[in-house]
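protien #1 (seq + structre)
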Amino acid sequence: MCELLALSSSRPARLTFSLHTLAEHGGLHGRSHDGWGVAFYAGNDVALFREPRPAADSPLVRFLETQGPATALAISHIRHATQGGVSLANTQPFVRQLGGSAHVFAHNGDLPGLEGAVPLDRGACRPVGETDSALAFCVLLTRLTALWLDVAPPPLEDRLLVLADFAAELRALGPANFLSADGDTLFAHGDRRLQRNGHAEPPGLWIRQRRCPPNDASADQDAGIAVRTDSASVVWVASVPLTDDPWEPLTCGELVAIRDGEIVSRDRSLGARDHAF
């Protein structure tokens, strides 16, 4: 399956060790070798890097580890193709503009029947590429549009309601682990993932928070980032734990909102709710 990684930090940080570790899953240690991408936020815009090739042997990945932009919010994805060919258009994360902000989306799972189950006004948002993930992103943006017409960013509670309903509909179709960001907040939804026993079971995502003291280079390296000299709070979300430190699994259906390296909302009850199309 695909590999997901997100970073939210209170201070600008540079992805280092964790990007390399995730890349190893994209061709060396895993089956995800059909493309990779990473989006670095800078205010309301993003610097997007993608390649439809294995990440593990990519010179661009190695370049970004040392020369990539510092950021307080980043989302990365390594692809194992299930729908759509190996191409740049099908390579995540996907980026679209809404309400004056770049919105980023990355998904892990397979959503058969999505197009027939979830109506989409293709005049409002047309997917680029052939994947179920790109279609799901357009569905999400269409539902968020009304919120972003008047206020940017809209109230967090309103965005969470839209995301919770969206996530429940995806879970009814198949594994629906996803990361979404709008420049203000990072959202992570955990579901099921293909485990080593061959079954799709939770956890689908893991989370880890760490507070790095000022000038503590060892802590920064262990966390997989290079942080500026000020102290920082950092939250990681990933498909699998990337370090030997304690990581916490997300429960099936859990939706987490993260801002500036702090968890601001965490709803573990979503998986028990009964949603229908």
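ok now protien #2
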Amino acid sequence: MTEPRRRRPASSAFLLDLLARQLRDLGSPGGQVLEVVDVGGGTGGVATALAADGHRVTVVDPSPDALASLERRTAEAGLQGRITGRQGDAADLVDVLGPRSTDVVVCHRVLEVVDSAADALAGMAAVLRPGGVLSLLVSQRHAMVLGSALAGHVALARRAYADRTHFDHDQVVGLVERAGFTVLASHGVGAVSAYVAEALLDAEPGARAELAALEAEVSQDPAFRALAPQLHVFGRLGAAENPVGAPVAVD
């Protein structure tokens, strides 16, 4: 008997839906196949979703084991020819891919672990074609503080609050803009759902749908966005105008 597929957490489902809508709005009204690079994409959680939407995705990851799992996952999903794995990391994107070689760079949960966030973003800008876009997901300092405190680790919460090397919204936006991007939108991811137990959602009919709607509603509210475990920033290289003539939806 086939095991039932696990339901995506509300925050992950919200992020993938948000990114899919943002990318759909990049091209002509009839849609456009985009060349996407997923930096540190690992086993392909994001890549398979984007490839299923018709895009061509190259996953760049330093782990051979992750790339092997990506290959198996791609085959199981029937997405051969739409997903390619390349060994490398954020520091050598230009060497791996070549300059001005892609339409979209996806960088989720990677910027926190690189040696230089500024250098990594510069490399991402270098592989994008003019008008290309960046999907950036980073962990946020305020949520680290709150999560640690709620778990009873108050000393850890205090250290997280004092550690200014962890990102917050303004810091991330500043880094992205200095790398040559115009920020089109920023959303908190998990602003509510990260603090709601999964068991509670199963106990109340319709709770998951209501939570998904609430996540979308509060994701751009500055107060809730600051407390979200992750921040998603969507930016365009250069000016905000769409080079193919269609407006970009940022909501």
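The two ends are 41 Å apart (CA to CA).
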